[in-house]
Amino acid sequence: MTELAEAAGVTVRTVRFYRERALLPPPRREGRIAWYNEHHLARLRTIGALLARGHTLGGITELLTAFEKGRDSHSAAGLLGLEPALTTPFSEEVPVRLTPEELAAHYPGEVTPENLSDSIDLGYVAVDGDELVHTSRRLLDASAALVREGIPLADVLDGARRVRTQVEAIAAVFADVLSAHLLAEDRDPEDVAASVDHLRPYAKHIVDAELSMALDRRVRSRLDAWLAEHGENGGGVGGENGGEDQDAG
After folding, report:
1. Which CATH architecture group holds 2-87?
2. Of 4, 18, 40, 99, which sits with the fewest C-beta atoms within 10 Å of its C-beta?
3. Has this prediction a pTM greater than 0.85?
4. Is 242 helix (H, G, I), strand (E, B) or coil?
């Protein structure tokens, strides 16, 4: 159950609660061992996606029941027919469970109450009993690397908040395009889900390519300006002096 909870980005307590509410089917049992599979993970992600869209647990229970009974329900088909698209996330982030000491080791001297509060507000870190759960291994490693390079964690988090605003706008562009051209009323939900799943990597490729080129332009411009200033005050002057000394000699 712990592995299932980690893969879904929820707590073990949440998994137990969903089991008690019959939102999650029982696991396959072999003796005292309970086996969960991809179906259980998909169900957890479906529940999370529907909750994010404003559905209540009671409403989700009814929708799931209708879907499983094969009832010809427009609401169930419309929402749960997109289950592959909803449960296969665009992100591929792997959450990381950490003790407070392990988190502090990633950011030596930087885990202040203010920074921890900001991390929780951003949704990067959640508290689960005596442990902390970071939402993304990649974000954890990248932010720790920035801190090791001398960038204060507070500035890293501030930058992350600014980036969040920009990527939400980018995501909205893709969502608008997909909605305008894929979510037609006469399309079969499974066909829509397949199209979204097929286009998923291309959205990432476009953003990655555009970001790489933008970084190249922006960072190169800043670096060129710094090198020009550095050359005037340091290495460049030495080179010019060296030439003058040679001429004078």
Report:
1. Orthogonal Bundle (1.10)
2. 99
3. no
4. helix
